[in-house]
Amino acid sequence: MHKLTVTRDAYGESGIYNISCDIVNYMESESNKKRILVHTPYENYYMMGTLKYWSVVLNTSGYKFLDLDRNILVNVDNIVLMSNTTKEVYFDLKIDKNSMKCGIAFHKYSKYKRIILSFNPNIIIV
After folding, report:
1. Is 52 in a helix, a strand, or coil?
2. How far apart (Å, rounded) are the C-alpha atoms in residues 73 and 50?
3. C-alpha 109: how far from its chain's center?
4. CA–CA separation, 79 vs 81, rounded Å?
5. Which of 74, 57, 78, 71 is nearest to 112 (CA)?
6. Domains of the chain, each with CATH number or no CATH
7. Residue of 64, 66, 30, 60 lying closest to 45 (CA atoms)
8. Are 57 and 63 in contact (CB under 8 A)?
9. DSSP codes of every residue in 96-121
10. Alpha helix (H) ranges present in the chain?
11. Is residue 33 over pLDDT 90?
12. Are strands 81-83 and 44-48 parallel, antiparallel or unpaired?
């Protein structure tokens, strides 16, 4: 199990924490600040770098992360649902206003749907 070194706040004042790569649902670029917001089911974290860099590192390490949009990198193994209507992926079975979700670029939806389902055929399509 690999770990990411993160902080709990954007400025690093909370100190360093290590989290498992497996619990990361998605990463979101804050490119103007050269940092990444890491979304897990429990909490959000911050780390430095670019999505392109972390995509290479994580995929080379055996994980399945896809760039569904230019500022979003998603852990395919944690996707539970995909919506054909809204072109979004969800990380739990319950869809409501509090659900963690990521949009897929509309022009890339069909392509990414095939790729995601080839990696994780257990995803429910709604």
Report:
1. helix
2. 10
3. 16
4. 6
5. 74
6. 3-125 (2.40.50.1020)
7. 30
8. no
9. STT--EEE--GGGHHHHHHHHHHH-T
10. 51-60, 109-119
11. no
12. unpaired
The confidence band for 96, taking pLDDT boundaries of 50, 70 and 90, is: confident
In angstroms, the CA 120 to CA 14 distance is 35
Query: Tell me: the pLDDT tens digits for 50-94?
Result: 899 999 999 999 999 998 888 899 999 999 999 988 899 999 888
d(C-alpha 51, C-alpha 57), whole Å: 10
Residue whose C-alpha is closest to residue 19's, from 42, 32, 2, 3 = 3
Q: Which two tokens stand for residue 46?
A: 């911050």
